[in-house]
Design brief:
It is a single chain. It contains seven helices and 22 strands. It has three domains: about 60 residues, Structural Genomics Hypothetical 15.5 Kd Protein In mrcA-pckA Intergenic Region, Chain A, CATH 3.10.290.10; about 120 residues, Pseudouridine synthase, CATH 3.30.2350; about 120 residues, Pseudouridine synthase, CATH 3.30.2350.10. Helix content is about 15%, strand content about 25%. It starts with 8 loop residues before the first helix and ends with a strand. By secondary structure, the chain is an alpha+beta fold. The strands form eight sheets. Strands 4-10-7-8 form a four-stranded antiparallel beta sheet. Helix 2 packs across helix 3. The longest helix has 13 residues. InterPro entries: PsdUridine_synth_cat_dom_sf, PsdUridine_synth_RluA-like_CS, PsdUridine_synth_RluC/D, PsdUridine_synth_RsuA/RluA, RluA_PseudoU_synthase, S4_RNA-bd, S4_RNA-bd_sf. Its EC number is 5.4.99.-. This is Pseudouridine synthase.
């Protein structure tokens, strides 16, 4: 009697990873790379370090000159600034974060929101931690802006899975659980720390970093990193991947490449393809999700797909998907995603919206128990990152 052994989700994934990692093409005018990795330690490291040239490093200063064109009544921004002021009749009814931002020049709303969430703002003597709280004429607002926290990125000898490198760009396969650049709570062990060492660059530092109270995501969002972080601690970075996601990241090595890549992300001319394991199978098996994405009002660390007419502050987001293979007896699927936009947690939020959260993604419903029931020996999330970069003289 012959027993037929059915492949597990894990073994099918391994086969897909091996096949995809063989496919990459290079040319003088176009770089086309396909790579896949699992959300675990990278499967291999470079045994020989390629020659690296210069890497773009943008220096910033925390010192600002007064703005002669600032609005009357506005205060100059500096660390630890205090604001004690009553809302005038001209302001009318306004959001708390918006009103404070209008009273202090040169400060981002993100820093104001950070102060509000940290309990550093009161209205009429009562602490308010809701950024959307409305203030009206006569309300007395007391606010202390969060101190800027210094941050350094030091070179670290971290093995990097480098897929491609030339004089313009460095393409690295980021493993899961690695943060792209330093941030409060993740000052070491980031991809940037490894890149600085690889390119023989010195320590970079910045005073322009928010306190740990600020909500942070490492996901790419239209190809530009959050303005909450100074460019000096993320040299050459033009896009990001979430901490728990593996895949390719391109790093610019000079200003020209940085400008071109940033523009391509902005214009959506860079094509991004991802592959994920899902809890369940989408119906239909292929389709397009065009649903805005915004912050989940019930969980600040999570994004949510918000259908019209309740979109509020949500931003346009569109994803195309198709099932590559059914797995685990139809309980899971290998799904390909092509992004038309690049919102924070876009795939994760859209997958949850259509009822197929990613395996192992507990934030969006793909619980570990469900993953363990389908995967052997442990849950993991696979991501294929397939980019086309067009370089022009």
């Amino acid at each position: 009697m012959k027993t037929e052994v059915q492949p597990t989700v894990s073994s099918t994934l391994d086969k897909h990873i091996t096949k995809s990692n063989r496919k990459y093409k290079r040319s003088k005018r176009m770089l086309s790379i396909s790579s896949v990795s699992r959300c675990s330690a990278p499967s291999f490291f470079l045994s020989q370090k390629p020659t690296a040239s210069r890497l773009l490093t943008v220096h910033s200063s925390s010192t600002r000159e007064p703005n002669s064109n600032q609005n009357p009544g506005q205060r100059i921004n500096y660390s630890g600034v205090k604001l004690e002021e009553s809302v005038d009749s001209k302001s009318g009814k306004s959001r708390l974060d918006s009103w404070i931002s209008s009273r202090i020049s040169g400060i981002s709303r993100a820093r104001v929101q950070s102060s509000i969430k940290s309990g550093l703002v009161s209205v009429n003597g009562k602490v308010i931690d809701k950024v959307s709280h409305n203030v009206k004429a006569g309300d007395k607002v007391n606010c202390v802006i969060s101190e800027l926290q210094p941050l350094r990125a030091e070179p670290e000898n971290i093995p990097l899975d480098i897929v491609y490198e030339d004089e313009n760009v460095l393409v690295v396969n980021k493993p899961a659980h690695m943060v792209v650049h330093p941030a409060p709570g993740n000052a070491t062990g980031t991809l940037v720390n490894g890149i600085l060492h690889h390119c023989s660059l010195p320590t970079v530092s910045s005073q322009e970093v928010l306190s740990g109270a600020e909500d942070v995501s490492d996901d790419d969002d239209e190809g530009s990193c959050s303005s909450s972080y100074a460019a000096s601690v993320r040299p050459g970075i033009v896009h990001r991947l979430d901490k728990g996601t593996s895949g390719l990241l391109v790093v610019a090595k000079d200003e020209h490449s940085h400008a071109h890549l940033s523009e391509q992300f902005k214009l959506h001319t860079i094509k991004r393809v991802y592959v994920s394991l899902t809890c369940g199978v989408p119906a239909p098996m292929a389709g397009r999700i065009d649903v805005p994405i915004g912050r989940d009002v019930t969980n600040r660390i999570r994004m949510a797909a918000i259908a019209e007419p309740n979109r509020g502050q949500a931003r346009h987001a569109a994803s195309r998907y198709k099932v590559i293979e059914l797995l685990a007896g139809g309980g899971s699927a290998l799904v390909e995603w092509r992004l038309e936009t690049g919102r924070t947690h876009q795939i994760r939020a859209h997958a949850k919206y259509i009822g197929i959260p990613l395996l192992g993604d507990e934030v969006y419903g793909g619980t570990q128990n469900m993953a363990l029931s389908l995967l052997d020996p442990e849950p993991s999330l696979a991501v294929i990152a397939n980019f086309l970069y067009h370089f022009q003289d």
